[in-house]
Design brief:
The chain is an alpha+beta fold and 207 residues long. The protein is 44% helix and 20% strand. The protein contains 7 helices and 7 strands. The strands form 2 sheets. It has a 5-stranded mixed β-sheet with strand order 2-4-5-7-6. A two-stranded antiparallel ribbon has the order 1-3. The chain is globular, with a radius of gyration of 19 Å. The protein starts with a helix and ends in a 6-residue tail after the last strand.
């Protein structure tokens, strides 16, 4: 479909309307790509087979996710606090855990107000590795928050299929956490905003 669009707009006689239509169709194709990618990751995580388990640093993945989204953070004037203050390691799929961090950071950016803040902490306690992604913002309904791990569930007036995402972000996070024998807790902060807490098995010290 992309190739057909490229051929159409490359013709010398291509009308301005054709070029404009091609631009809109490319935007829709990007959204379809994003949605299909989300379905594939969700299916992989729900299948629960993780043949490539290796010790993974949650702190490193958090820093990588934030670095990749520096332009988005700057555009909203968001302040990032306490990034990976004390690292934690977990055995698992580096690719899936990276996607988990990316989705949590994306969610924290999209559902934040301009000039807001994001706090990301990692740590460990005994046999568990801890990751917390926390944001400020408007006061949320905990009953709505409890449903956010279901595919296509959104907060308030957010509309599935809008430019804000596919509605699969947190359901993918929940599936990845479950595939790694962990637990995801989503809590509406009394002061406003959301706290996402992930507990995963800690990697052994020999790792």
């Amino acid at each position: 479909m992309r190739a057909s669009l490229d051929v159409a707009v490359a013709k010398p006689e291509a009308a301005a309307q054709t070029v404009a239509l091609a631009g809109r169709l490319r935007t829709e194709l990007d959204r379809v790509d994003h949605l299909l990618d989300g379905f594939l990751v969700l299916a992989q995580a729900q299948h629960g087979t993780l043949p490539d388990r290796t010790p993974v640093s949650l702190g490193r993945l958090a820093r990588e996710a934030l670095t990749a989204r520096a332009p988005d953070l700057a555009a909203k004037k968001l302040t990032v606090d306490d990034v990976a203050s004390s690292d934690s390691w977990t055995p698992g799929s580096a690719a899936l855990l990276s996607r988990m961090l990316e989705n949590l950071v994306d969610n924290a950016i999209v559902h934040n107000h301009e000039g807001g803040w994001i706090r990301i902490c990692t740590g460990h306690g005994g046999v568990e590795a801890l990751l917390v992604v926390e944001t400020g913002g408007r006061v949320l309904d905990q009953e709505q928050v409890d449903r956010l791990t279901q595919p296509f569930e959104r907060l308030g007036a957010d509309r599935t299929g809008s430019e804000r995402g596919s509605g699969l972000g947190l359901s993918i996070v929940a599936a990845i956490v479950a595939a790694h024998d962990g637990r995801l807790d989503l809590l509406a902060r009394p002061e406003g905003g959301l706290r996402a807490q992930v507990l995963l098995p800690a990697a052994g010290e020999d790792a």
